[in-house]
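Morning, I've got a small favour to ask if you have a moment. It would help a lot if you went through both lines with me. Thanks so much in advance, here it is.

***
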Amino acid sequence: MTVATRNAPRTERTSPLSGFLRRREIPVAAALIVLVLVTYAANPLFLSQQGVKDLMLNATIMIILAVGQAMVIFTRNVDLSVGSILGLVAFLTGTLFADAPGIPIPVVFLAGLALGALLGAINGLLVTVAHVPALVITLGTLYVYRGINNAWAGGTQYFAGDRPDEFGALAVDTVLGFPIITLLAIAVVVIVGIYLAGARSGRDLYAIGSDPEASRVFGIPVARRVMTAFVVNGLLAGLAGVLYAARFNSVGATTGTGMELDVVAAAVVGGVAIFGGSGSVAGAAIGAVLLTTITSALTALRVDKFWQQAVVGILIIAAILVDRIASVRTARKLRLTEARDV
């Protein structure tokens, strides 16, 4: 046997099934299934026709927000202003329907998407141009956007009766058993997932999150890609704001308050590494479904709201610890492999 043969790098072959089971999304999906089955066993009404529809509706807004947040986290950033963006767009939606009767629903959607994208672009510019950590920037814009909404809305609220019946029907009517707005959320997950997997600019987001400096060396336009992630995140928050106005009975100055932490939690619990570079939008969507289902399940089991929040906190800590342990194990395997091949 030659030296070259002895020193040839060894490759481990894994079956497709083994690779599938190692995916980050699998434990989250398994936890979701167990949660649903246990809750159903304790309360059979949990999976009634209306109960299943409510579960899908409750998860819809969070799924869209989690997908956008995941794109930002992939780049080793975070956006804490999404709840405020949603609130502004939701109130804009109510204002358009109240002040411009007969306005076409597609125009309202376009206005909401445009405002969300604009607010996301402001976040992206501040992060990429000022070179200030996104956590600090978006914490500031969270309060700025919320302040603008408070000043604009004041004590005004818009209710379900202020919007066209066709608009409200988006959260009522179903296709093949799925609410229309839930199908929109699924479409968002599929489209963004295809973009991240198939487009070079999408794959660049992972590279940036893994090593920003190396990405610059390899010619990736880091600032432009990060800017794109923030704009898309804002656009999706705008879409969520419009759908929020269709889903819920009222919108006002406090709409969306506190949602930002739930959104980050959904992405992290869904397997998106908080330090960037890995995860998937499908996982973020499953994480969103898990968190909203936990709330519904604990409510169905008449568990105190405090414990609902505690469970979410435990899930976040567990997800971060699992990600950290996986990173350490991967680094250890890499070192052992390099030592063996020397």
